[in-house]
Amino acid sequence: MATPPPVPPSPAESHSGLRRLSCERGDITRVRVDAIGNAANAELVGGGGVDGAIHEAAGPELAAELGERYPGGCSTGECVVTAGYGLPARHVLHCVGPIWRGGSFDEAGLLESCYRTALAAAEKVGAKTVAFPAISAGIYGYPPRASAEGALATLADELVSRPSIESVRMILFSDELHAIYSTVLLELGRRMSAP
Fold this sequence. Notes:
Layout: H1 11-18, E1 21-25, E2 35-40, H2 49-58, H3 60-69, E3 79-83, E4 91-96, H4 107-124, E5 129-132, H5 144-160, E6 167-172, H6 175-193
Parallel strand pairs: 1-6, 2-4, 2-5, 5-6
Antiparallel strand pairs: 3-4
Helix pairs in contact: 1-5, 1-6, 4-5, 5-6
């Protein structure tokens, strides 16, 4: 017999998840949390942007672990975990976000899956504090506003069923992304508080 689909959280429950979310302007390689998200490529070989910065700050052991444990890479919408090595974070959640192709190739579902699988992985390794970049909003071309809406709504909903995760911080590398994510977070809070 098939398992029934999960019941989505009520607005009040989602609002409780939203209270554990914040947006900050900064450098994710310097954030002191249990786990950070990485906007990884499918080959897990380190690239540009956030991915390159994380690989550089962590040191060569990060690439060595990825190559040894995940030689086939990682599928879009999924996440794999490594140690943090030279980073302040103990763990890195390597999330392969979708490349934006106009919105007709399930980009929204794949982006949501990145955050869901990453929080599940964070919980599995015992992380209580997590930080994420704006996955896919850089060189993968995902529209920043849509990226913020998908990321923050998904994280707020997912945090409802993950009480062991105390906080999730969105660490945004530019003033523009910080402004967009902060605005969307405020709007989500207002919508969820409305009667």
